[in-house]
Target: ABC transporter ATP-binding protein
Amino acid sequence: MPLLELSDIKFAYPGHDPILNGASLSLEAGERLSILGPNGAGKSTLLKMIVGLLKPDAGQVSVFGETRDQEADFHDVRRRVGFVFQDPDDQLFSPTVAEDIAFGPLNLGKSRDEALALVDNILAKLALTHLRDRITHRLSGGEKRLVTLATVLVMEPEVLLLDEPTNALDEENEERLVEILSGLPQAMLLISHDPKFRARVAPSAYRLRAGVLTRED
Ligand SMILES: Nc1ncnc2c1ncn2[C@@H]1O[C@H](COP(=O)(O)OP(=O)(O)OP(=O)(O)O)[C@@H](O)[C@H]1O
Model:
């Protein structure tokens, strides 16, 4: 059973031409796949459908073996699927880094002490402890991206959706991101325009062209 399955997805933003014209993909447990395609092809749009941020006009979204359609169907999907958005500012909203990372665990009912222990643990794992008490909106673009990853990984998601995760990262941090992702057990669906990064993290790919996905490997 695939973890994620998109079947024959059709979609147009209201008032615009269709961008998805029958796109299908599936991701199995432990699998790592990239989605390739030109700017504006609809790659981010596809990822947003997996967590119910957008609804297809036609076609089926299935996650963890269940068809997801209504808003309520996506509540457990959002808890179990970690999504690193293209723009970290869409994801970080608390005053400090520690509070931003603690937000998810607190929301799940963890105590303050438990949540802060999880924060310290994930920051240490990602070698980001020095950022713990920094003001989130004053972080650099690359620091924000790494903190975003921490807010996602602290939830121990079963699948990762990564939209341009190397944006704003310098070479050293990109290398660290490769090491971190390579060491994770989760299945991943990755959008990246960086061929070197893709080759190391998720060399198998789908290509999105004219609203249709084709497996490339
Ligand atoms: N909310 C929206 N309303 C209208 N059009 C939108 C909206 N969001 C995205 N679009 C348009 O839909 C198209 C697909 O966007 P999407 O972000 O999915 O592309 P992408 O393949 O991820 O592109 P990139 O590689 O540049 O990130 C683009 O032309 C974009 O401008």
User: Anything to note?
Assistant: The chain has a mean pLDDT of 95. The pocket of adenosine-5'-triphosphate is lined by residues 13, 16, 19, 37, 39-45 (CB under 6 Å).
